[in-house]
Recover the amino acids of this structure.
């Protein structure tokens, strides 16, 4: 029935529009005789009434109301008075529609209030004599905590309303006495936060719900660092080459006129793509050395960007740079193009490693900082292990690269979920922005928010009033004898662990047997190694744990030197022991180094050690290439280096449970007393 009426109104509206276009504008009289405006308005109301007869959600009903409010001004163009009157009629009708559907309780409160005030203010205006409009009174009741209902008392039913709507509104009772609103109860009871010297942790707590949530989302980027750093294992997987020339077995000899790759295991690799064989064989390892160089440069460059322009911009930049450059690698046509964009991927990966770790550590209190700092390395091990699964099902290097890169699309969520570091904002003088972020974190952590602004402003006033402490530089690490000795020993530990970990991971892929299973088992053992580091550093200390883990790597790799002619299982087992020891050492060097260097040169010391460590990673592929002269040479170099690292750790002091050194003088004297006590 309503549909027929709508079609009739459409025909009337079209006829009125045709008359207006014919130039008969004088016949269009002011309201209430504007046939076009009234007809279109009535048609719009009937259309909405037909749709509203179904069970609508609050948002659908809200869209209908907005449609009326926005549609009436468009279709009522005769004059300003008619425009206002038509909008008013639309609002009145929308209120009656919502009431008849018993839906006002489900509308957004702001729109309830808006309609209510529109009707109360403008009903007297548009109900004046001389205008054919409805003068209706709406009373607003608040019998519950929300604005639940409008009650309509029509004094003169306007014929532009659907009759069914007007009839339904006559029987509604009138409520005029407002009821007192109960005071809303808070959603949670704030839990007090322990006040410490750290103004940030004093507002949000040491490690609560938000820090856990932030850890779980930021840790996603750590999977990508493992994939891109060690993807070379399968991008340049061993691909046997054979000579098809009769009576010639060496495919690299001059007598061999035709060669063929064995593609039964891997259909394509970068070796088969650009014929990286014979004299060009070292170019495959060179591409991985370029990757390690990129990680080193990325860590330093994005670290400076994060200090200058903020952690969030630097973090987002390196995440999306990793995605874009990683996808471009899949399209490489030339070897130099491949190396260039693998280098850019590595730069982004190095930035992701550095900035994500800083972002996380700056909102976690000291009680859990040690544990989270070590657990943060586990996704790297999982990423390393999952490379075997990717390569097992994807045997073409371009699609393999695509599969480990496309995951970075997930980083889009960081745009909304990763805020700027409140600590960086605070130290750079942006206190207001820092307070806003801290208040949001505090609400998530169910911590009090009333005093955050006052306390942060007071803390910044104290910070600004301090005399800036003398800043150190890299040369201060070598200025005094004992500090110089400790710096060299710690840098050597970083050099060895990066060289042994990355080098052994690549070396296992070259051993016989199932390459997928070998890499998977060796990588998975890194997870218990990282977890074991948490226990050992807590109960045995940093120094003894470092010596034991380096010793374990040395034992496994030196055994491989004497057993290199043994079965494949024995060789892989020895190499896995060496890799397991390095997986314990890796998180320990981060923790040990941060506690060893004094505050004024801590960032310089860690930056120097990280750079030296990346040099070790850069050398690892080149050392692996020495197996052409003897398969025992590579494990010998790695094993001897582990022994030297173990011996060098002897000169380092234990840092577990000791106050951290602050000044250069503290750094020079730190550990001397314990050293004298031992002698």
């Amino acid at each position: 029935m309503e549909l027929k009426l709508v079609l009739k109104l459409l025909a009337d509206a079209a006829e009125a529009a045709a008359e207006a276009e014919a130039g008969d504008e004088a016949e269009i009289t002011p309201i209430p005789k504007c046939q076009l405006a009234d007809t279109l308005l009535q048609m719009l109301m009937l259309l909405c009434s037909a749709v509203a007869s179904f069970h609508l959600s609050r948002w659908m009903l809200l869209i209908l109301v907005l449609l009326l409010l926005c549609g009436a001004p468009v279709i009522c163009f005769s004059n300003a008075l008619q425009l206002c009157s038509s909008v008013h009629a639309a609002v009145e009708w929308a209120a009656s529609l919502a009431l008849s559907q018993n839906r006002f309780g489900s509308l957004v409160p702001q729109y309830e209030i808006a309609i209510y005030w529109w009707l109360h203010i403008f009903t007297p205006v548009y109900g004046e004599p001389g205008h054919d409009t409805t003068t209706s009174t709406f009373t607003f009741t608040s019998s519950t905590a929300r604005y639940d209902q409008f009650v309509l008392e029509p004094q003169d039913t306007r014929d532009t309303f659907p009759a069914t709507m007007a009839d339904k509104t006559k029987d509604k009772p009138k409520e005029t006495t407002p009821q007192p609103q109960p005071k809303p109860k808070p959603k949670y009871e704030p839990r007090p936060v322990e006040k410490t010297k750290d103004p940030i942790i004093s507002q949000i707590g040491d490690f609560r719900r938000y820090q856990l949530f932030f850890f779980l989302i930021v840790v996603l980027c750590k999977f990508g660092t493992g994939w891109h750093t060690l993807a070379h294992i399968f991008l340049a997987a061993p691909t046997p080459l054979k000579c098809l020339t009769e009576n010639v077995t060496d495919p690299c000899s001059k007598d061999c006129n035709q060669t063929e790759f064995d593609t039964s295991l891997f259909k394509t690799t970068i070796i088969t793509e650009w014929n990286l064989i014979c004299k060009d064989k070292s170019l495959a390892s060179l591409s991985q050395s370029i990757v390690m160089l990129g990680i080193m440069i990325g860590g330093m460059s994005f670290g400076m960007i994060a200090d200058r322009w903020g952690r969030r911009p630097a973090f987002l930049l390196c995440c999306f740079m990793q995605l874009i450059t990683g996808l471009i690698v899949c399209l490489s046509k030339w070897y130099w193009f491949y190396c260039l964009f693998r280098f850019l991927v590595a730069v982004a990966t190095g930035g992701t490693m550095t900035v994500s770790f800083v972002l996380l550590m700056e909102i976690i209190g000291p009680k859990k900082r040690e544990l989270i700092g070590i657990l943060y390395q586990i996704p790297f091990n999982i990423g390393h292990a999952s490379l075997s699964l990717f390569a097992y099902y994807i045997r073409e290097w371009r699609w393999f690269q695509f599969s480990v890169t496309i995951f970075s699309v997930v980083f889009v969520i960081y745009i909304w979920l990763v805020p700027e570091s409140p600590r960086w904002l605070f130290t750079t003088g942006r206190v207001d922005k820092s307070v806003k972020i801290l208040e949001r974190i505090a609400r998530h952590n169910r911590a009090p928010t009333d005093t955050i602004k006052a306390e942060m402003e007071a803390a910044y006033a104290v910070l600004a009033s301090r005399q800036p402490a003398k800043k150190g530089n890299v040369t201060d690490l070598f200025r005094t004898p004992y500090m110089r000795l400790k710096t060299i020993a710690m840098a050597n530990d970083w050099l060895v662990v990066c060289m042994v970990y990355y080098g052994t991971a690549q070396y296992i892929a070259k051993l016989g047997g199932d390459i997928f299973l070998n890499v998977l088992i060796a990588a998975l053992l890194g997870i218990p190694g990282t977890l074991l580091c948490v226990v050992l550093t807590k109960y045995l200390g940093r120094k003894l744990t470092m010596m034991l883990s380096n010793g374990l790597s040395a034992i496994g790799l030196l055994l491989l030197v004497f057993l290199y002619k043994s079965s494949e299982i024995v060789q892989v087992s020895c190499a896995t022991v060496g890799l397991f020891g390095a997986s314990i050492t890796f998180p320990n060097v981060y923790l040990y180094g941060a506690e060893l260097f004094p505050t004024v040169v801590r960032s310089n010391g860690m930056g120097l050690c990280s750079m030296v460590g990346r040099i070790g990673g850069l050398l690892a592929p080149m050392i692996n290439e020495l197996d052409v002269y003897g398969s025992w040479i590579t494990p010998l170099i790695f094993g001897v280096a582990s022994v030297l690292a173990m011996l060098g750790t002897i000169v380092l002091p234990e840092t577990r449970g000791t106050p951290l050194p602050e000044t250069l003088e503290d750094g020079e004297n730190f550990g001397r007393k314990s050293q004298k006590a031992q002698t």
User: Anything to note?
Assistant: The mean pLDDT is 76. The beta strands are 136-141, 149-154, 241-243, 259-261. DSSP finds 30 helices and four strands in the chain. The chain has three domains: 2-170, 210-416, 469-679.
